[in-house]
TrEMBL record:
SMART domains hit by this protein: AAA
Domain of life, per lineage: Bacteria
Native source species: Pediococcus stilesii
Record keywords, A-Z: ATP-binding, Nucleotide-binding, Transport
Record lineage: Bacteria, Bacillati, Bacillota, Bacilli, Lactobacillales
Domain ABC transporter residues, every copy: 6-240
Name recorded for this polypeptide: ABC-type quaternary amine transporter
Gene3D superfamilies attached to this UniProt entry: P-loop containing nucleotide triphosphate hydrolases
């Protein structure tokens, strides 16, 4: 049985005369990838920022490893929590290596250990250390910058990492690649992740469990499959349907695309499908072959899909 990493106990938060978090209680287990999803203004980002005390709750308690967050030294608390923002927020006058090394240096890692760690992490996200180590953020694409933002957050292997809508400003292909990267790193590092998004589809793909928020309240916490098949109320049902789409078979391929090839790939694809094609077309083709290469409008490979990904998506979203 895993330990509770984060616990909210009747937490409330006001901004001026408005109560934005009404009475919030939930637990996140050690090693869990927990997703908070909701519309703009639902309170999900405020909830996230109370964990690293960028916002301080007005009532109730937040516990980190069984200890009240308010009892931690603030600097030490934040050194134990990785943080990835939508705005990326790399330091523009620092190189890629310096950005990634920031927290390990503050935690007094040796220079040699930091150098080794930076190179390992860059290779982990398919960026050649020799080519990228000394570049500046302005020399990187948006997707590359966000990769470095993720590496900076996990460089010192913090027990918990917060993601605040990190991919919402990126194009669908890059977003899919970074979602896959988060899943890969989570599986390898076993860190606890709390991920905020307004996209139910992203929540379904990433979350071990999902918390659906609206108007400062947590409406339902459950596994992706349970929420898809048994929404707690009409808001959850409508939000799910409007985000994912009622006609699942007309959903575009990009919803289930996978990037990179690994030992879990059942068979390298020999047939192709366009990223703008629908799941209905994929369903027909995957009845004949196990995997399909996904290409963009120019015929360039952007990833792949297989029967497992298709059936998993349909089973989790068909309610």
């Amino acid at each position: 049985m895993s330990e509770t990493m984060i616990e909210f106990q009747h937490v409330k938060k006001d901004f001026g005369d408005r109560r934005v978090i009404k009475d919030l209680s939930f637990k996140v287990q050690e090693g869990e990838l927990f997703v908070l999803v909701g519309t703009s203004g639902s309170g999900k980002t405020t909830t996230l920022k109370m964990i690293n005390q960028l916002f301080v709750q007005d009532d109730g308690d937040i516990l980190f490893n069984g200890k009240k967050i308010k009892d931690y030294n603030l600097r030490n608390l934040r050194l134990e929590i990785g943080y990835v923002l939508q705005q990326i927020a790399l330091f523009p006058t620092m190189t890629v290596e310096q950005n990634i090394a920031l927290i390990p240096e503050m935690k007094h890692f040796s220079k040699e250990d930091i150098r080794i760690r930076v190179d390992e992490l860059l290779r982990e996200v398919n960026l050649d250390p020799e080519r990228y180590r000394n570049r500046y953020p302005r020399e990187l694409s948006g997707g590359e910058q966000q990769r470095i933002g993720i590496l900076r957050a996990i460089a010192s292997e913090p027990p918990i990492v917060l993601f605040d809508e990190p991919f919402s400003a990126l194009d669908p292909i890059v977003r899919t690649q970074l979602q896959d990267l988060v899943l890969k790193l989570h599986q390898k590092l076993k860190s606890t992740i709390i991920f905020v998004t307004h996209d139910m589809d992203e929540a379904l793909k990433l979350g071990d469990r999902i918390g659906v928020m609206n108007d400062g309240e947590l409406l339902q916490v459950d596994t992706p499959k349970a929420i898809a098949q048994h929404p707690a109320n009409k808001f959850v049902e409508d939000f799910f349907a409007s985000t994912v789409g009622k006609n699942l078979y007309q959903t575009q391929i990009e919803k289930i695309i996978r990037t990179g090839f690994d030992t879990d790939t059942p068979k390298l694809p020999t047939e192709k499908i366009k990223i703008t094609d629908t799941l209905e077309e994929a369903f027909h083709q995957l009845a004949i072959v196990e995997t399909l290469e996904v290409v963009d409008q120019n015929g360039k490979s952007v990833g792949w899909i297989d029967r497992q990904a298709l059936f998993k998506y349909l089973s989790e979203t068909n309610h």
